[in-house]
Design brief:
By secondary structure, the protein is an alpha+beta fold. It has 11 helices and 16 strands. Helix 8 crosses helix 10 and helix 9 crosses helix 11. This is JmjC domain-containing protein.
């Protein structure tokens, strides 16, 4: 894997020059530009490349013994300060900016105050929701995020009458009629993203909630309408340190985030993380496949989550799969699947083509401009709303002419690829264990974009019994 180049961000409050350490110099030689970040401790320094072990050594870093004492039976993240405070922007950015600088790089970001312009920000009082949607039924969950004892669905009016003194919170898809109160963030208004919108969720509680440490296989914009959330995010490269393969449900860590047992899960001390401070009206981008925990303050909470599908680009044109150099990868490891996905994303981020956002393109010919010439028509020199009246429409994306290629993400020309394996042809069978086993074996032998894209989707949320069955079954590869 080639090293990624990162922008130099050097901070110093006392001196006007920077002395590079040997580690920083070596990082520069390897095209990895390191930088210091302010943190909770003035004697700690972190490098811009969170994936390179040589470049991820903190000056005067905590020992594992110190991190154990700090973190044992304490909330997740107590073992060390965050390596990075997530970047905060006091403005919304364009879709191209968002996609090229954050999405394809899996770089979290917070947009401050963007939700305060939504109608929902002022309209969604308890009284309004009760009057307008009181008879609608919503899915409920418990504040301790117990996935094994989920309460029954409830009418919104009943929930509103008791949620101030109950252990339940509401989480369900945003009703179609409620969507008129949600302004689609500007950063998503591009057909390369909007054409792949997946689902939207509405969250409501009195706060004091904490999610499990989990992943979502889709990109996520979490929009806080009311309340405050702290979001801890962990790169997938640390998946094995979160014991991803030992979980009862893949993609949901069995680690108790309220009291991390470092005797049972000692490798957690090796986990580095980002922390996002998401206040009322803010939006946070949570990259797909990233482990995250969402903590809500004990106060009235409302949020909308917008999910969309995303795939990294190919390393080579034509979907060509490259044979792997060795077979030393740990067999059938979900943690390694997630890490490989993230490393692929980072590896191709700087060769990803710029998105076009054609429906956002408006030309000068669509407008009238003032002229200083005599006897020519004049425009409204004091401004107008022509741009808002254009009525931009989303066009269909071009689809491959060869329909056989469309449903298969693997190297179609490789006769050993899952594209040609009979058990993988049934796209409707989501629990086809023979297909998953075949893909796992294929991916041990070929470096195929389909492997990093499909395995997280196929293995996520598998039960432990299914996982063992796949590992023990006879291979057809």
């Amino acid at each position: 894997m080639k090293a990624e180049a990162y922008n130099i961000m050097l901070f110093s409050s006392q001196i006007s020059f920077v002395t590079f350490t040997l580690i920083e110099f070596l990082c520069m030689v390897n095209l990895i530009l390191c930088h210091e970040h302010p943190s909770h401790h003035s004697d700690t320094h972190s490098c811009g490349n969170q994936y390179g072990e040589d470049c991820n050594v903190l000056k005067n870093d905590l020992t594992e013994e110190e991190m154990f004492l700090r973190g044992h039976m304490k909330p997740f993240g107590s073992h060390r300060p965050p390596d990075f405070a997530v970047e905060e922007l006091p403005y919304m950015i364009s879709p191209v900016d968002f996609y090229m600088n954050y999405v394809i790089k899996h770089k979290p970001v917070v947009f401050k105050g963007a939700v305060k312009y939504w109608p929902a920000y002022t309209k969604w009082t308890d009284q309004y929701l009760n009057t307008t949607y009181g008879q609608e039924r919503f899915h409920m969950e418990t504040k301790d995020d117990d996935k094994w004892n989920v309460p029954p669905d409830m009418e919104l009016s009943e929930f509103l009458s008791q949620y101030n003194h109950s252990n339940r919170y509401l989480v369900d898809e945003v009703l179609p009629d409620m969507r008129k109160d949600v302004i689609l963030p500007l950063c998503l208004r591009c057909e390369e993203m909007s054409s792949f919108f997946f689902v939207s969720y509405f969250w409501m509680s009195t706060g004091g909630t904490s999610s499990s440490i989990h992943i979502d296989t889709d990109e996520n914009l979490l929009c806080v309408i009311h309340g405050h959330k702290s979001v801890l995010m962990v790169s997938p490269v640390y998946s094995t340190h979160l014991y991803s393969d030992e979980s009862r449900v893949l993609g949901v860590s069995d680690i108790n985030p309220q009291a991390v047992d470092l005797e049972k899960f000692p490798n957690v001390v090796k986990v580095r993380y980002h922390r996002a401070n998401v206040e009322e009206g803010d939006i946070v981008y949570i990259p797909q496949i990233w482990w995250h925990q969402v903590i809500s303050r004990p106060e009235r909470q409302q949020a909308v989550a917008l999910w969309w599908k995303s795939k990294p680009v190919f390393k080579k044109p034509g979907r060509e799969a490259l044979p792997v150099e060795s077979l030393d990868k740990e067999r059938y490891s979900f943690g390694n699947v997630l890490a490989q996905y993230e490393l692929w994303v980072q590896n191709v981020s700087d060769i990803t083509p710029r998105i076009k956002c054609k429906d956002q393109q408006v030309f000068m010919s669509d407008y009238q401009f003032e002229s200083d010439k005599m006897n020519v028509p004049q425009t409204q020199g004091d401004g107008g709303y022509l741009e808002e009246e254009l009525g931009l429409k989303i066009s269909d994306l071009n689809k491959p002419e060869n329909k056989d290629l469309n449903p298969c993400d693997f190297d179609y020309k490789n006769q050993k690829s899952p594209c040609h394996f009979e058990s993988c042809r049934n796209q409707e069978d989501e629990e086809n264990t023979k297909c998953i086993r075949y893909i796992l074996d294929y991916c041990l032998h070929y470096d195929d974009r389909g492997c990093v894209d499909q395995l997280p989707q196929l293995m996520n949320k598998l039960g432990s019994s299914q996982y063992k069955e796949i590992q023990q079954m006879q291979s057809d590869f």
